[in-house]
């Protein structure tokens, strides 16, 4: 209740609740008491931004290029208006300003909401937040959650930089490790494929992730071989390198090394 002098025709009410309906009536007062009240006027205070973030933000599922998330809605008493939707922000961990991708979804259910973030980098870590908004603006941002997309196969092939015969039955193969950014998972190792000119099927030799050379033994004498190398993760094998052709030596060949004594 607010009382004013007879010369005033207006009143100010303060400290009201946000986005709340109020019933207002006016009555005259004299020494005999209060007169009849006017017809009630229903007035609602303006909206504000939500005062609470969505809660319980969590990751439900991941693939190599997507992350599915869910959260609990903002309590009605903390919405402070008509909730228009939620904004999900996400970016690559450790890369400032990577939150340029914003996903906006409409309110669909009163309790739990979900969204799948797609088109993500394979085997990459992301931070994710969510906030609710009204026509006035965004409310507080939720606590971030971190999630990593699933592994995939390597995206590039190793480069064979050396393949030479060491004897009539062996060939040494060396290659350059694939860059970390192209592994797209945990590198488990390399597979070296080789086949002779007399065969249509490749044989293989496997190495660990830190090894970048292998000695192929027990090969046919004086025979041409085609060699390929591929890296692999738990999800499978990446592309194979360009073919490299090399032949074993003839049987019985040997190398001579000549030395000359320097003049003193």
UniProtKB/TrEMBL annotation:
InterPro entries, sorted: FN3_dom, FN3_sf, Ig-like_fold, Type-I_Cytokine_Rcpt
Top-rank taxon, per record: Eukaryota
Any one Gene Ontology cellular component term annotated for this protein: receptor complex
Keyword vocabulary terms for this entry: Disulfide bond, Glycoprotein, Receptor, Repeat, Signal
Pfam families with a match to the protein in the record: fn3
One Gene Ontology molecular-function label: cytokine binding
Organism listed in the record: Nematostella vectensis
Extent of the signal sequence: none
Ranges for domain Fibronectin type-III: 1-48, 53-152, 157-251
Protein name, as recorded: Fibronectin type-III domain-containing protein
GO-annotated biological processes: cytokine-mediated signaling pathway
Keyword Mitochondrion: no
